[in-house]
Write a structure and sequence with these properties.
Largest sheet of chain A: 11 strands, mixed
Oligomer: heterotrimer
Number of domains of chain A: 2
CATH class of chain B: Mainly Beta
Order of helices and strands of chain B: EEEEEEEEEEE
Structural class of chain B: mainly beta
Shape of chain A: globular
Number of strands of chain A: 21
Number of strands of chain B: 11
Distance between the termini of chain A: 40 Å
Largest sheet of chain B: 4 strands, antiparallel
Number of helices of chain B: 0
Chains: A alpha/beta (about 425), B mainly beta (about 100), C alpha/beta (about 475)
Radius of gyration of chain A: 21 Å
Structural class of chain A: alpha/beta
CATH superfamily of chain B: Rieske [2Fe-2S] iron-sulphur domain
Strand content of chain B: 35-45%
Order of helices and strands of chain A: HHEEHEHHHEEEEEEEEEEEEEEEEEEHHH
Number of helices of chain A: 9
Helix content of chain B: under 10%
């Protein structure tokens, strides 16, 4: 199944999707065919180098195969495991089912619960944003709907795991989370594959609808193999008094271009956007963040921290946008880069567009090496340089890892970073 | 990499040698040079630019490089470009990358 | 606390800077731009062939290059409606008596001869396209300092001129640099010899008088090893209903151990588009300081930059922007670290009021090998009402080891606590806001010579009063 119009039809048929979804895929495919690849004259793509990526060479679908990995966390209240592009297997606690929680592959949800999916799917993560987003919307396969009804609180996290074992294919899952009024829960998406020779085209996009007064924690842990090119768009739509805590962990892939956005729509809405990344070898990561304060009395807090090794390159570009009517907004944005090698390259572009004067808005960016004073302090206490450096890097990540919305994910991310530090 | 008759005097040509993008130059006094085609300033192709004596000028922002050793002769570029040896034999141009 | 006189800001600009004289000229090129006009300008100036060729080539580049789209909307500029060259007088004066009476009166009103007597070592006054008055203390002339208009420099210092002209900012750098190179006229040329310190400032004043005028001065400053100079420029224009264009190019070379300070108080009327390219290259242990104040114009786009070429080089940008109704100040700075152990700071203070928009746009770039660099950028924006807007666009690129780079920005309004405190002491709201704004930009004003600091505070006061009037 190649990147063709026929594949779009085939995927829709395979899942037995309703006509409206098939039409939506076709429209996305038209966009895909109409628009060219982004070029470097566009500011967002100026520093992005996806040379070596040829979309036409990928298979649009990867059948489930290979040995599946274990679950990253224990005691999840619900688990969806997807292998390749095949819609996943779902387990959900009976009690949650009784309370009306819906957790299933997205195409199944489109058939069974169109009232939840139809108006929301690709309304925040738009298909015409760029060619890669169009490919994702036309050819997505599997993915998840999680719906938590009004006033339902889920103690233990829900887990989505996406595993790919083949190269040369497109793995395009989509997570759709709908939180009813005052719902409370945490969700972890894990994306992983071994490193293979043949390149892969992956996404891992998420749309998160946070209802009035709801509180949603979302963690995305990306561990694709070093053959993968990832293009992901994560965006939360937050209603009155709702709160979204989004935590992005980017470790894998040869290339990752991730947008992480909060659309603050209701009074009293709040968003926490946090991220950690560790780039080594010849990895290239590009993060674009947006804190969009559409209305007043909204708060957002962003911190992206990362370490760079070897010849890795990282671009961070983030925007705080305060609309005219958004009085009493409070926004914070910071990007911190720790450069551990001579040849790594970091770009940091924290931007503000402020259209209202009654706001509090601060941002900052730093790029720097391991602080020589801290290093000297530790060494003077007899700690070897390598250990001291490692301690400093751990401390650097600690500040943001502490903000991971739930404990299981916190431990998991700590272990992953630990492993990367070697 | 090219035939000499493909490049009249005082012209530039884009060629790829072993995956390296090279700007081949035939100067007005009939000398041949090869320089990395990617401008060290903002990565536009020098071969789309102009030749001024021994200088090649980037079309986008006007950075200049000396074809003989790649050193910068005009801002905004500040990093020297890599140059490659060129040989001409029987109407064929060879570049050693 | 002195009580500010109640004057509407618009009226005051008109009275103080916005007046105009009847247009008189000895030569005025026809409206619009063409290859013929470019050649005509060069012919009028009796330039060498290489300059004519460079102008024509730059005109071609200008035509080819696209309008930038990442910034304020520039599509409103009608290049065909502008006069590109206007020569007001045949002869340049070296005493004010030699300057035609009406032009002299203009500069009298602007207080230039008075300032010259009091505290300047040299003055250049440009009216429309050419410099009409020029002076330099005899002592500096004796020390070998050259301070002249750029047209004269091309005739009298051809070698020095050709060595540097267009090497820092080539015509292809951007569309407006190409335009300037094609039609440049006037501007200052300064050469400070090795070890010479010009202790009191040199000033240039740029005045547009005619409607739909384009002013394209070109400035070249060369500070030889161990020298020092402080150059100040000011600019104003009358208020017309149709637009004028000011597009200057400034190139500066600061050699080993030298220091150059370049101060601008830009107060164009709000019908002027001010699109300026300023760049300095700085060598070992030398320092470049841009002190850049933007109050006037409709749109300003200006990002003074410093290329830190050798170890120990240092660059500073101190920028203040004030945008009132209908104004967009898009200003900032660029620091390009090419060599190791170089340092830079950018401090930006911006104030938006009455629907005005200020944007900070900056770039800090550290090239491979430029290890152990330090750069710090601090931007503070003050929004005086809920109609106004502030943007911050800092680009930070680090490609070397052991580099410490920091950027911080805050956006705020005048705090209620501060206002309450001042008003409880019997100060009116407007006076209190003015005091807070003047305090906010103090890091800038304290870098100015006293006379300019006083003038700037007064300008701010007038701008602030416009907000209640």
């Amino acid at each position: 199944m190649a990147f063709t119009k026929e594949s779009v039809e085939e995927i829709a048929s395979l899942h037995g999707e309703p006509d409206w979804l098939r039409t939506r895929r076709r429209e996305a495919w038209e966009v895909y065919e109409r628009i060219g690849l982004p070029d470097r004259s566009e500011e967002e793509w100026r520093r992005v180098d996806f040379k070596g990526l040829d979309l036409e060479t990928f298979a649009a679908f990867e059948p489930a195969n290979g040995a599946a990995p274990g679950l990253p966390i224990e005691g999840a209240a619900g688990v969806l495991q997807q292998r390749g592009s095949q819609p996943g297997q779902v387990e959900l606690e009976e009690e949650l089912r009784r309370k009306g929680v819906i957790f299933m592959p997205l195409s199944q949800a489109a058939k069974e619960h169109p009232e939840l999916v139809r108006d929301r799917l690709f309304s925040e993560v738009k298909a015409d944003r760029d060619k890669f987003a169009a490919a994702h919307a036309a050819l997505f396969s599997g993915g998840t709907l999680l719906y938590v009804p009004d006033n339902v609180e889920i103690e233990r996290p829900i887990l989505g795991q996406y595993w790919s074992s083949g190269g040369g294919a497109a793995i395009l899952p989509h997570t759709l989370i709908v939180a009813g009024c005052n719902a409370r829960f945490n969700y972890l998406d894990e994306f992983l594959s071994p490193s293979l020779d043949e390149p892969a085209f992956t996404s891992g996009s998420a749309e998160i609808f946070v209802g009035e007064g709801a509180a949603v924690g979302y963690v995305s842990l990306q561990k694709w193999g070093r053959h993968a090119y990832q293009f992901a768009n994560q965006r939360a739509h937050i209603a009155k008094d709702g709160s979204a805590r989004i935590f992005n962990v980017t470790l894998g892939g040869r290339f990752a271009k991730v947008r992480c956005e909060a659309n603050l729509q209701g009074h009293g809405a709040s968003a926490e956007l946090k991220g950690v990344y560790f780039a080594s070898g010849d990895q290239f990561f590009d993060f674009h963040t947006l804190q969009d304060h559409q209305t007043g009395d909204t708060t957002s807090d962003l911190l992206f921290k990362g370490a760079l090794e070897d010849t890795a390159r990282v671009v961070y570009a983030g925007l705080i946008r305060i609309e005219k009517g958004a009085a009493h907004s409070d926004a914070y944005q910071a990007n911190r880069n720790l450069v551990l090698s001579d040849h790594a390259k970091a770009t940091s572009i924290p931007m503000l567009e402020i259209d209202n004067n009654d706001v509090r808005c601060t941002h900052g960016a730093t790029v720097g090496p391991v602080d020589p004073m801290s290093l000297w302090y530790l060494e003077s206490r007899g700690i070897p340089t390598a250990t001291a450096t490692r301690m400093i890097v751990q401390g650097f990540f600690g500040e943001v890892v502490d903000r991971i919305p739930f404990e299981q994910a916190r431990h998991l991310v700590e272990e992953e970073l630990e492993a990367r530090l070697g | 990499m090219a035939r000499t008759d493909e490049l009249p005097v005082d012209s530039l040509k884009h060629v790829v040698c072993d995956g390296v993008e090279v700007c081949l130059a035939h100067t007005e006094n009939d000398e041949w040079f090869a320089i990395n085609d990617i401008c060290t300033h903002e990565e536009f192709n020098l071969s789309d630019g102009e030749l001024w004596g021994y200088d090649v000028e980037c079309p986008q922002h006007g950075s200049r490089f000396d074809l003989r050793d790649g050193h910068v002769t005009g801002l905004p570029a500040v990093v020297a470009a890599q140059t490659f040896p060129v040989a001409v034999e029987d109407g064929d141009v060879y570049v050693e990358v | 606390m002195a009580v500010a006189p109640k004057i509407n800001v618009g009226d005051d600009y008109k009275e103080k800077y916005g007046f105009f004289d009847p247009e008189k000229f000895v030569f005025k090129a026809k409206r619009g731009l063409s290859k013929e006009i470019v050649e005509e300008i060069s012919w009028m100036k009796q330039e060498p062939e290489w300059m004519t060729k460079l102008r024509v080539r730059s005109y071609e580049i200008f035509k080819r290059k696209k309008m930038p789209t990442w910034c304020a909307d520039l599509s409103v500029i009608d290049f065909d409606n502008i006069f590109y060259f206007l020569k007001s007088t045949e002869k340049q004066g070296t005493t004010w008596d030699e300057v035609p009476e009406d032009i002299k009166r203009t500069f009298d009103k602007l207080g230039i001869p008075e300032a010259e007597r009091k505290f300047l070592a040299g003055v250049s006054a440009q009216y429309e396209s050419e410099v009409v008055y020029h002076s330099l203390h005899q002592k500096l002339t004796d020390q070998g300092v050259v301070f002249t208009d750029t047209d004269t420099a091309l005739r009298e210092h051809p070698d020095l001129f050709k060595e540097y002209f267009g090497t820092i900012i080539p015509p292809a750098d951007n569309k407006f640099a190409a335009l300037n190179t094609a039609v440049w006229s006037g501007g200052s040329f300064i050469y400070v010899p090795k070890g010479v310190h010009v202790d009191i400032p040199l000033q240039a004043y740029f005045r547009i008088n005619a409607e739909n005028m384009g002013q394209f001065e070109r400035t070249l400053i060369i500070c030889d090893e161990g020298s020092f100079v402080h150059y100040i420029e000011g600019c104003t224009a009358p208020i017309y209903t149709t637009d004028s264009l000011h597009s200057a190019v400034v190139e500066i070379i600061v050699k080993r151990n030298a220091r150059c300070r370049y101060t601008t108080i830009q107060n164009w009327s709000t019908n002027v588009y001010n699109l300026v390219t300023k760049r300095a290259v700085v060598y070992a242990d030398a320092t470049m300081e841009w002190v850049d104040g933007n109050l006037g114009s409709q749109i300003t786009m200006k990002y003074p930059s410093v290329y830190l070429m050798e170890p120990g080089a240092k660059g500073d940008v101190l920028s203040v922007a004030f945008a009132g109704k209908g104004q967009h100040q898009d200003a900032g700075g660029k620091m390009i670290h090419v060599a190791p152990n170089t340092t830079s700071t950018i401090t930006s203070k911006s104030i938006s009021k009455g629907g005005g928009r200020t944007s900070y746009r900056g770039h800090v770039k550290v090239y491979p090998g430029a290890n152990h660099c330090k750069s710090f950028v601090k931007c503070d924006a003050l929004l005086l009402d809920d109609e106004s807007r502030s943007d911050t666009y800092p680009y930070n690129d680090v490609d070397a080891e052991n580099v410490t780079l920091g950027h911080e920005a805050t956006v705020s309004k005048v705090s209620d606590e501060q206002l309450f405190y001042l008003m409880s002491r019997g100060i009116t709201l407007n006076e209190a806001e003015t005091m807070i704004v003047n305090g906010f930009i103090e890091p800038f004003t304290k870098e100015l010579p006293l006379e300019y600091a006083v003038e700037l505070n007064r300008l701010i006061q007038l701008e602030m009063e416009g907000s209640v009037g």
